[in-house]
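In this section we walk through a basic example: taking a raw amino acid sequence and producing a predicted 3D structure, encoded as discrete structure tokens. The instruction is simple. Fold the sequence below.
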Amino acid sequence: MQDAGFVRQAFAGIASRYVLANHVLSLGIDCLWRRTTAKRIAALKPQRVLDLATGSGDLAQAIQSACPAAKVLGADFSVPMMREAQARRFHTLIAADGLALPFQDGVFDVLTVAFGLRNMASWPAALQEMSRVLRPGGSLFVLDFSIPRFPGIRQLYLFYLKQIMPRIAGWITGKRDAYVYLCGSIERFPSGKDMEVLICSNGFQTATTTPLTFGIASLYEAKKESGL
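The resulting token sequence is shown next.
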């Protein structure tokens, strides 16, 4: 689905300014999205959580704060991005490819991936690997951008996504090409019912969607099939 080499290079190039760019481009609302995700995870009282494509560790830190008794591990294939997580004082990290995770079957209670599945080389293969490392009945949380359904908001958002966001992000990071790719990937990424079908076709059941901020982002929750 995506060129892994290009994605790795793109994130290495924007790592030092990634968090700042996210906060500016979302007007800080991305922090609220992560807190919402962490709050839902806390209700499950997990013991072991894997935050895949952890990047700068923002979601992993939010989960750890909400679940102080849990062991939260962040994994990413971009070492420069994980150095940013270390700089932000999150150190429970491992370098790993989402399509070949270095864990035994069924070792995590919860697996999260925020703004990362969209950039993986194969969405079905990545979801199957996530299912493999979750225990039977374990929970998956996918947080990512989506395209709003309401016509007026949809058109305004698409204009911002295509014309404004790459310019602002390019000014902040000096890597406009990376954000031209990232913004384009949002429009191509499945959302809503399409994402639920994708998740449920690859080792999960009862997937649900929660639109966030008029559908600019969505939080997907699913359970691993009990018999797997």
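Looking at the output, two observations stand out. The mean pLDDT is 88. Residues 4-224 form a domain with the Rossmann fold fold (CATH 3.40.50.150). In the next section we compare this with other chains.
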